[in-house]
Amino acid sequence: MAAAMDWLPWSLMLLSLACDSHAFYVPGVAPINFHQNDPVEIKAVKLTSSRTQLPYEYYSLPFCQPSKITYKAENLGEVLRGDRIVNTPFQVLMNSEKKCEVLCSQSNKPVTLTVEQSRLVAERITEDYYVHLIADNLPVATRLELYSNREGDDKKKEKDVQFEHGYRLGFTDVNKIYLHNHLSFILYYHREDLEEDQEHTYRVVRFEVIPQSIRLEDIKADEKSSCTLPEGTSSSPQEIDPTKENQLYFTYSVHWEESDIKWASRWDTYLTMSDVQIHWFSIINSVVVVFFLSGILSMIIIRTLRKDIANYNKEDDIEDTMEESGWKLVHGDVFRPPQYPMILSSLLGSGIQLFCMILIVIFVAMLGMLSPSSRGALMTTACFLFMFMGVFGGFSAGRLYRTLKGHRWKKGAFCTATLYPGVVFGICFVLNCFIWGKHSSGAVPFPTMVALLCMWFGISLPLVYLGYYFGFRKQPYDNPVRTNQIPRQIPEQRWYMNRFVGILMAGILPFGAMFIELFFIFSAIWENQFYYLFGFLFLVFIILVVSCSQISIVMVYFQLCAEDYRWWWRNFLVSGGSAFYVLVYAIFYFVNKLDIVEFIPSLLYFGYTALMVLSFWLLTGTIGFYAAYMFVRKIYAAVKID
After folding, report:
1. Which segment of the chain is annotated as a signal peptide (predicted)?
2. How many angstroms separate the Cα of 137 from the Cα of each of 26, 94, 120, 132, 381?
3. Mapped to the 3 state alphabet, what secondary structure does 230-280 carry?
4. Which residues contact 57 (CB under 8 A, 6 or more apart)?
5. pTM of the predicted model, to two decimals?
């Protein structure tokens, strides 16, 4: 752990130096300057739905295709997210208007969808699929104008403008299905200030779309692929009948507007969608509760401990002390190695690996280096950091295993490198098989899976072995008291010392400190929202570490006062009690917030939730365990033992 903390400033310094190469824009992406009538490429990312949780490629539906389809080379994070970025036939020129243009029209003939294609399009519309496009790496958004519910005249009602990611593929009305076949693109540009005699350059700063459904008969197309749209709201929408062939036009228009938004601030529209006030309220509430309880717990424990230690150290009252009950009576057994020390040290090693990875990722993201504009960067960084943090996980696991009188360090290192990652890989592989069966772009391709296995066994495993070797060779943790040869008998425990009751009690405080932020994280994962409030998340993470440590110390103190010295496993399990509440919250979120009804989307949700809960339990359990271990060593070092 200490080694990890020593390494952290250097890693952050290196990362900051790496990002200084593009100091004018933190995420490390250079702006593209366009001249008048330069082509602005519109690319498609994927189709998503919060109802099915299965992303699909853009051309999985019968959209108009360009003469040559070119896929962008994706990073690891993009592949794992299901992004398949591909070119589209939309012809957009900088600051050049287009009234109406027909896509894939051959000699003025409409597109004919077969019965099978019509059925597929209708199915995707009923499943609430959204289409995601990008222009100059900016995602398309649909503007929603909502009227605030304030009393007064209708004319004075304020408009609340919100943005929805992507655009709806279509809509249903009275059991009929309609497709959005006309897209009105509204692109905003910022004119760059230049010296005299230089041509103006433009930068794209916002990308909006107004999707419309216009039936074939209302669109008048000519042989030059131009078209005329009906005026006003007189047209009928384009219906898709899944039982027969359907004829329609795919059309689009382009409108440009000048904007005062500068290029460096162009993502603000997408990242300020959620209410920031509720985050501040959540943080202040959590800080007040945590520090209030911290003060009470610290006062009680310090006062009680001082009294205990003073009593135990009175030399003239040795006989009375021996008759008393309390934590001193188990001094000969408190450091007795637990059952399965190899598994315990392996899990704690993985917990240290997770802790280092999460701390660095959140901190670096908080500095703005993992912006959503760098697609997949967050997930790619997390994967690589977890691999490289194996050296610290191995070191801490090896040293603890030696402290617990373990001898088979090679087996222990292998267990540390494979136990938690093996469970994660196994669950993901099973879920991936189901996603493959649905032909979704969310399925991890076989070459990527092989690459992940190579990273696991080629980077993470050797680093864990390296760390384990040095950790096992290092001097074990110095326990202040000797362990008796014969174990002490444990008295019968009260009902509230039950393990499950302990988990319920210990999990409330850490979960209460973070549950509001958890809602936004769940929304980002399951409802295709952007999450970029890493400053708040970093504060929440600090509060979580503090609250887990305090609760863990209190729980181990009560346990030792009850003369139960089997604290190693119990403390690890109980400290991760907030993971149980995360599971309960995930079930609540599934029932109340999501509209998932099918088997495979439900399986995906609970499969990935199980991984989140397992990882969260490892993280909080490890934080609590090391806090309790330091506390136990401290109090027994302060007592005179005969």
Report:
1. 1-23
2. 15, 15, 29, 11, 20
3. CCCCCCCCCECCCCCCEEECEEEEEEEEECCCCHHHCCHHHHCCCCHHHHH
4. 46, 47, 84, 86, 441
5. 0.83
* Pairing outcome for strands 170-173 and 246-248: unpaired
Q: Which of 169, 178, 179, 249 lies closest to 216 in space, CA to CA? A: 249
107-163 tens-digit pLDDT: 668 888 899 999 999 999 999 999 999 998 889 988 887 665 544 445 445 566 778
CB 24 within 8 A of CB 190: no
Measured CA to CA, the distance from residue 527 to residue 589 in angstroms comes to 11
Number of other CB atoms surrounding residue 280 within 10 Å? 11
Angle between helices 499-526 and 276-312 (to 10 degrees): 160
Rounded CA-CA distance 164/81 in Å is: 19
Q: Are 241 and 118 in contact (CB under 8 A)?
A: yes
Q: For residue 270, which phi and psi values (nearest 5 degrees)?
A: -85, -30
Residue 607: CB atoms within 10 A of its CB come to 15
Residue type at position 1: M
**CA pair distance 612, 590, nearest whole angstrom:** 14
Residue with tokens 């001898």, as numbered in its chain: 407
User: d(Cα 7, Cα 359) in Å, to the nearest integer?
Assistant: 12
b/e per residue, 378-404, with b = 16+ CB within 10 A?
bbbbbbbbbbbbbbbbbbbbbbbbbbb
pLDDT in tens, 378-421: 888 999 999 999 999 999 999 999 988 888 888 999 999 999 99
Identity of the residue numbered 627? A
Neighbours of 495 (CB within 10 A): 6
Contacts of 21 (CB under 8 A, 6+ apart): 28
Give the count of beta carbons closer than 10 Å to the beta carbon of residue 196: 4
Confidence of residue 209 (pLDDT cuts 50, 70, 90): very high
On the 0-12 / 13-18 / 19+ scale of CB atoms within 10 A, 15 is middle
Q: What angle, 0 to 180 degrees and rounded to 10, lies between the N-to-C axes of helices 377-388 and 341-366?
A: 140
How many whole angstroms separate alpha carbon 236 and alpha carbon 217?
9
For residue 558, which amino acid is it?
F
Residue 171: CB atoms within 10 A of its CB come to 16
